[in-house]
Design brief:
The protein is an alpha+beta fold. It has 4 domains: 221 residues, HUPs (Rossmann fold); 190 residues, no CATH class; 213 residues, Valyl/Leucyl/Isoleucyl-tRNA synthetase, editing domain (Isoleucyl-tRNA Synthetase, domain 2, Alpha-Beta Complex), CATH 3.90.740; 63 residues, Ubiquitin-like (UB roll), CATH 3.10.20.590. The chain contains 30 helices and 33 strands. The strands form 9 sheets. Strands 24, 25, 26, 27, 28 and 29 form a 6-stranded mixed β-sheet that branches. A 4-stranded parallel β-sheet has the order 2-1-22-23, sandwiched between helices. The structure holds ligand ANZ.
């Protein structure tokens, strides 16, 4: 520690040192906590009696809350927290009622895995981790309303997570009304006969089990036996969003298989259109919107029925119904239910030997092929370049427009989870079908005339022709002809024909699947569901919530050989028979029930936490409607309402952010909240990266022990390589905020993190550079406090004109930068002002010193509070008004504008950067060089890009 206890220090006992920073910071943190400085008033309580406060615009500012991991925070974690804090402080100082707090997302896998390794109960390790993280965060001086903090594992919190589950379970999506409604209203429709039951019987004629099954088809939370992602190595099933592109578990990187298991799902697909459409009104990064759009994956196309002899028909989904005349075979996903029904006992006479795969019968071929397909992930199955595999089912279907008999195959390139799980194959115009047809010697027919010179015989082609810019050929029957039409017109024409003949219709298909919502874990929210003796699911009444997580002997998940797809999950909660088997009175007398033993996925708790911040201790409701309306409700420019600023990493694009949007919409539809979107503005901060040093074996060595010599890096004498990577314990390059706070103080750390670059850009951490921000604070201090006596040195005089200009320019610039979240340039402007004042010498005018302190307050709140008080104020700096620039002193700088005539530069004008297009055009046309260059010619066009460029095109 070079800055303490030097000779200079003895001579200057009141210098801003690390020790002084530590003292100042601890003192004000205690004070702020004691005073409740950051507590945000709610409109129903505190604001109601205070009209001035109630008139303030609100700002609800949020971070993606952390998972309390055992390794604590490194300096990369608080980047976003510091940014929201600086922003929130600036908003508070510009007249807003600011809500800013932070909770913990505390259910989840790591605590459980740690528990399995060490035998510690997940609650104990999680709570210890939270204590540690809270201390680390407190050290940063974040202005959070601590009364509003909670953890998702708190029973008072997950009571409401369970309550929301019940709301979702007890509702259905009315497609006509375009919103969720209570399930009781659906039951009423069935009872009155307004809506027919699936088999047409009267509702009263159905028994309890049949009614439950019918309602299960509608409920927004439902159990089903669909194929799910089963990861034996993790011991749990996973949502599609949790499976990586190469078909492994996002956590733990274990293989994932498709298995048919009874699981809970959320009918998020009912909201596909709204989730897509409402993105338009959100202020989110385009990249994230795009990821959500792609994940939802809206495709317009058609469903077409192909009759199969004796077995009804196969319905396909296609986006190229225009190519229907070119469909020369069909493919079902290997898992498709129809397969059993269409396969004949024996191969038809003369079946091509390549089609049978050498199997004696269709049944044998199908069984063998299904086994092979189940071992592959969806992504492997869809890989473009790969050889196409498959086998003939022995069945033929009829092409509804050509009347031709087409063979039906099963092949793994067709997925069960998309469209109808069946396709019409058009090998001439789809490259996957082309490859398959080649491998299986299937016929191809050209129905879209190639616009290149390959000719119309597909057997001579290298690949399919799939352009839209062409005309249809070979596409006519007795009733309809598409020949000569373009693709778009042909689609419309054939869709109409299909509809008229009752063999198909235009449809929209989504890539989005329902959200698999149950996990075979211990450390999650229990489902508020019990089963009666007939196996019918019943929701618990609200009065029985929270249903607390019980103690069990062994909370580790049952895991299996990661590659053994034939295993079945076992839930830890099922091991507590006393808890599972209960007698309850659900309104019709005491009866025996069995509890659901799955738990909710760890996304559940983060699906609605923004709402609970608003009203964290409400025991009667999820959130008071008036409170919700005030902080989250729709308003000008925020059509669906939502949090005003939400900062977090880009990795949550389709998980947390999609799920949270879905829950908001359901709660909105059911009338519980006025907002239909949780987060109006989303901002993704960059990452703090760090150098990773590796030895010759490729193993990371501790970064702190690496020495640099002549541009090379050495660890214990051995040369090591250096690359920029993530920061973390495993890469041995983590720097903790505690270390930096200890060495320089939290204000310096805050300044350094904000000064590193634009907030949305990733940046490398450099411990050696931190001292630069420490020096800024030292100079700031020295400009106001005498280092020898500790006295404030300001004087009550008027500053000179030069200083006023520097001051007001800084005020203007810093204010704009803070509002625009350009904290790095704000710091540069503060530094410039401070340097100006240092250079000017002499004591500062009080009015200048005070405004300087206010400018710094959002960034370095502790030192600002200290100086503010030393300047003689009694109220906290936190609640002062941010300084306002006097425009008279904010003189525009000039910029150079280039004027071109016919593309050649003819003049350079020194002008104000805020000049209007009209003004600039007039100035340019009046310039004598421009007039000369035009030589009397008229003007055809003037292109003005104020303030940088004017381009004149003569007539
Ligand atoms: C015939 C056709 C002809 C097709 C052609 C494409 C080109 P998107 O845009 O992603 O929605 N398809 C449909 N269901 C499938 C499934 N379960 N597994 C694999 N592929 C499936 O893609 C829709 C197209 O993907 C559909 O249109 C279908 O192939 C295929 F020249 O039908 B098409």
């Amino acid at each position: 520690m070079s800055e303490t206890n030097t000779a200079a220090e003895v001579a200057a006992p009141h210098r801003y040192t690390a020790a002084m920073a530590a003292d100042i910071e601890a003192r004000w943190q205690d004070f702020w906590d004691a005073e409740g400085t950051y507590e945000a008033p709610n409109p129903t309580g505190d604001l109601a009696g205070d009209p001035a406060l109630a008139a303030r615009p609100k700002k609800f500012i949020m971070d993606m809350f952390p998972y309390p991991s055992g390794s604590g925070l490194h300096v990369g974690h608080p980047l976003g927290y510091i940014a929201t804090d600086v922003y929130a402080r600036h908003q508070r100082m510009t007249g807003h009622n600011v809500l800013h707090t932070l909770g913990f997302d505390a259910f989840g896998l790591p605590a459980e895995q740690y528990a399995v390794q060490t035998g510690t109960h997940p609650r104990i390790s999680t709570e210890a981790n939270m204590e540690n993280m809270k201390a680390q965060l407190r050290r940063l001086g974040l202005g959070h309303d601590k009364r509003r903090s909670f953890a998702t594992i708190d029973a008072e919190y997950y009571k409401w997570t369970q309550w929301i589950f019940l709301q979702i379970f007890n509702s259905w999506y009315d497609t006509e009304a375009g919103r969720a409604r209570p399930i009781a209203e659906l039951v009423a429709q069935f009872e009155s006969g307004e809506r027919a039951t699936p088999d047409g019987r009267a509702w009263a004629a159905l028994d309890a089990g049949e009614r439950a099954d019918v309602l299960g088809q509608y409920r927004l939370a439902y159990a089903s036996d669909a194929p799910v992602n089963w990861s034996p190595g993790l011991g749990t099933v996973l949502a599609n969003e949790e499976v990586t592109a190469d078909g492994r578990s996002e956590r733990g990187n274990f293989p994932v298989f498709k298995a048919k298991l009874r699981q809970w799902n959320m009918r998020i697909t009912a909201y596909a259109d709204r989730l897509l459409d409402d993105l338009d009104g959100l202020d989110w990064p385009e990249a994230i919107k795009l990821q959500q759009r792609n994940w939802i994956g809206r495709s317009e196309g058609a469903r077409v029925d192909f009759p199969v002899d004796g077995a009804g028909g196969i319905t396909v989904f296609t986006t190229r119904q225009d190519t229907l005349f070119g469909a020369t075979y069909m493919v079902l996903a290997p898992e498709h239910d129809l397969v059993e029904r269409i396969i004949p006992a024996a191969w038809p006479e003369g079946t091509h030997p390549v089609w049978t795969g050498g199997h004696a019968s269709p049944a044998e071929a199908v069984t063998a092929y299904r086994k092979q397909a189940a071992a592959k992930s969806d992504v492997e199955r869809q890989a473009e370049a790969k050889d196409k595999t498959g086998v003939f089912t022995g069945a033929y279907a009829t092409n509804p427009v050509s009347g031709e008999k087409v063979p039906v195959f099963i092949a793994d390139y067709v997925l069960m989870g998309y469209g109808t799980g069946a396709i019409m194959a058009v090998p001439a115009h789809d490259s996957r079908d082309f490859a398959f047809a080649r491998a299986f010697e299937l016929p191809m027919r050209c129905v879209v005339e190639p616009s290149d010179d390959r000719g119309t015989d597909p057997s001579t082609w290298e690949d399919a022709f799939s352009s839209y810019e062409a005309k249809l050929v070979n596409s006519a029957n007795d009733e309809v002809s598409l020949d000569g039409l373009g693709v778009v017109d042909a689609k419309a024409r054939i869709t109409e024909w299909l509809r008229e003949h009752g063999v198909g219709e235009g449809t929209v298909n989504f890539r989005l699947r329902d959200w698999l919502f149950s996990r075979q874990r211990y450390w999650g929210e229990p489902f508020p569901i019990v089963y009666d003796e007939e196996g019918i699911a019943h929701p618990l009444p609200e009065s029985m919530l929270p249903l607390e997580l019980p103690e069990v002997e062994d909370y580790s998940p049952r895991t299996f050989d990661p590659d053994d797809a034939d295993t079945q999950p076992e839930t830890p909660l099922s091991r507590n028979a006393d808890w599972v088997n209960v007698t309850l009175d659900l309104g019709d007398g005491p009866k025996k029930y069995r509890r659901e033993t799955n738990t909710m996925p760890n996304w559940a708790g983060s699906c609605w936490y923004e709402l609970r911040y608003l009203d964290p201790h409400n025991e009667r409701r999820l959130v008071d409607p008036e409170v919700e309306q005030y902080w989250m409700g729709p308003r000008d420019g925020q059509p669906a309402g939502g949090v005003d600023l939400y900062i977090g990493g880009a990795e949550h694009a389709v998980l947390h952010l999609l799920y949270a949007r879905f829950w908001s919409k359901v709660l909105h539809d059911l009338g519980h909240i006025s907002s239909s979107e949780p987060f109006h503005k989303l901002y993704n901060q960059g990452m703090i990266q760090a150098f990773v040093y590796r030895d010759s074996r490729g193993i990371a060595v501790p970064a702190a022990e690496v020495e640099e010599r002549d541009g090379a890096y050495y660890h214990q004498g051995e040369k090591v390589s250096r690359v920029l990577g993530k920061m973390g314990k495993s890469l041995k390059n983590a720097v903790t905020p505690d270390e930096i706070c200890g060495e320089y103080g939290a204000d310096t750390l805050r300044l350094y993190e904000m000064a590193m670059g634009p907030l949305d850009v990733s940046r490398p951490w450099d411990t050696r550079a931190v001292v630069g921000q420490f020096r800024l604070l030292q100079r700031l201090w020295r400009n106001i406090v005498d280092e020898e006596t500790g006295e404030v040195t300001v004087v009550d005089t008027e500053p000179d004109e030069d200083t006023l200009r520097a001051l007001h320019k800084a005020i203007d610039g810093v204010g704009q930068d803070m509002a625009g979240m350009r904290f790095n340039t704000a710091i540069a402007k503060v530094t410039e002002l401070n340097n100006h004042l240092t250079k000017a010498g002499g004591p500062l005018a009080r009015s200048v010193a005070e405004r300087l302190v206010l400018l710094v307050a959002p960034l370095a709140p502790h030192v600002a509070e200290e100086l503010w008080r030393r300047l003689g104020h009694t109220g906290s700096v936190v609640h002062q008004d941010f300084p306002v620039a006097d425009p008279a002193y904010v003189v525009d700088e000039t910029v150079t504008c280039v004027v071109q005539v016919k593309g050649k530069v003819r003049a350079r004008l020194e002008i104000s950067p805020s000049i209007s297009d009209e003004e600039l055009e007039a100035l340019a046309l009046a310039d004598e060089n421009v007039v000369a260059a035009l030589g009397g010619a008229g003007i055809r066009k003037v292109i003005v890009r104020a303030p940088k460029l004017v381009n004149i095109v003569p007539a």
